[in-house]
Amino acid sequence: MNLKAALIAATLGLTGLPFATMADSTIGATAKEAKTDIQRSATDASVTTKVKAALIREKDLSAMDVNVETQNGTVQLSGFVDTKDQQSRAEKVAKSVSGVKEVKNDLRLKGSIGG
Question: What pLDDT, on the 0 to 100 scale, is given for residue 64?
Fold first, then answer.
């Protein structure tokens, strides 16, 4: 390619075609990752809702004092309960919900100092 043709090609961006193809594939990969993240977030939100609903159905457990968060199928329970029995029951209920892979029980007893 002579100098004039090279300058024209550079001006038109023709020398960047391989990079454009790489950019397109990177954008496609990013879109797929975003879709996966959205699906995962939707699944986590669904699991959180199901766990919270199951806790509400428990008669002797104040679900309003229990916070539920889910990330990648791992449920974290936090907040306060009255007894150790309620603490372990909340964990058992969460583990029984479809989609829960693991439960981290950070529930604290009301009135306990220092957790």
Answer: 87
Q: How buried is residue 86: exposed, middle or buried, by Cβ count under 10 Å (0-12/13-18/19+)?
A: buried
Identify the CA nearest to 109 among candidates 41, 88, 48: 88
Give the model confidence (pLDDT) of 30-79 as tens digits.
Answer: 776 666 667 777 789 999 999 999 999 998 888 889 999 999 999 999 99
What span, in angstroms and rounded, lies between the C-alpha atoms of 100 and 44?
Answer: 9
Distance CA 84, CA 96 (A): 19
DSSP-assigned letter for residue 58: -
Query: How many CB atoms are located within 10 Å of the residue 14 CB?
Result: 12
Of all helices (H) and strands (E), which one includes residue 66?
Answer: strand 66-71
